[in-house]
Amino acid sequence: MDARVLVLGGDELAAVEVARLLSAGAHVTVHAARVSAYVEDLAARGLVTWVRREAGPEDVAAADLTLRPRRRSQPVPDGLGDWRGQGRVTLVGGGPGAVDLVTVAGRDAIADADVVVIDRLAPWEALTWARPDAEIVDVAKIPFGRSTSQEEINRILVDRALAGQHVVRLKGGDSFVFGRGLEELEACREAGVPARVIPGVTSSIAVPEAVGIPVTHRGLTQGFTVVSGHVPPGHPDSTLDYAALARCGTTLVFLMGVGTLEAITAELCAVGMDPSTPTAVITDGTHPHQRVVTASLAAIAAVAHDSGIRAPAVVVIGQVVSLRRTS
Fold this sequence. Notes:
alpha/beta, Rossmann fold, Cobalt-precorrin-4 Transmethylase, domain 1, Methyltransferase, Cobalt-precorrin-4 Transmethylase, Domain 2, 3 domains, five-stranded parallel beta sheet, five-stranded mixed beta sheet, globular
C-alpha cells in the first residue's frame, strides 16, 4: 500500500482502523488529543505517528487518504446454539499477531460478542468482525506506562456477563501461555458465570516459525522449553533453575524477555551454556514490520540493543537458529 494515511481520532474504533492500515503497509499518522492505550503503544514503538492536536488543512493536504473511523455492520454467525442470549464469557487466544492467524472459532465469537475486552498484543484488526453495536474495552498493559490491573479486568468480565452480555476476552497468543487466562476463567467460575476457552496459536512457536526458525529439528534437538523472561535471574520472584536450562539440551524460547535479555544471557553463559550458541530475537512477529536479529548467546543482548529491538519480542536460543535462511 505504502500510502500516507491520516486518521482523525484515537479511540478504540480508530485503533481498529490503524491496525488494518498497518497490516496493509500504510504510513499512519493519528491526530487526537487522547488515544487508546493500543495506539499510544504503537506510537511509543515508532509504528505510527501521534500528533496531539486536531488536523489542519495542511495535514490533510499532505496525506494520501484521510480517515474518520466509523462502525461497520457485520453478520452474526450461525450455529451458536443454546448460548445465544445468555450472559457468558469467551476467552479467545488471538494468535501471534497477524489477524489471519486467529482461529475460525475465535472469529465467530468476536462476531457474536456484546463486549470485547482486548489488550495491546491482541490483533486489533479482528475487531472489524465485531457487531457495530459491540462495546470495545481497551485493557492494555503498556510496559512502564498505562495499565489495567488484573483485578479490574476480572471485574469487567464478570460484571458485564452478569448483566446478560456475551463478553469476549481477546488476548494475544494463547490465553494460557503467560496470559493469565486461568485467573480470568476462575474469576468467572467463582461468580457463577458460564465461560469457555478458545485456544490461540502461541507466539512461542509461531513467531520463530514465521522467520524460518523451527523450535525442533530431527537430529538437532528433541524438544523446546518456553520460559518467561519477565523477571531476571536472581530476582526474588524468579523460580527458574538457569543451570538446568543451560544443560537441558532443548531449544530455549523466552517470552517477555527483552528488558531482561542481558541478565538472562549472562546467567546462561555463567552456568555453563556455550557462549557461541546461536540466538535470535524477533520483534513484532508475523506483522509486516517484523524484525529479526541474530548473534551468539554472549553477544545477542548488545546486538539487540544497538538494533533498537523493543518489546514485544520472542528470544530463541539454540542450534535451530542456525537453520534460518535469509534468502
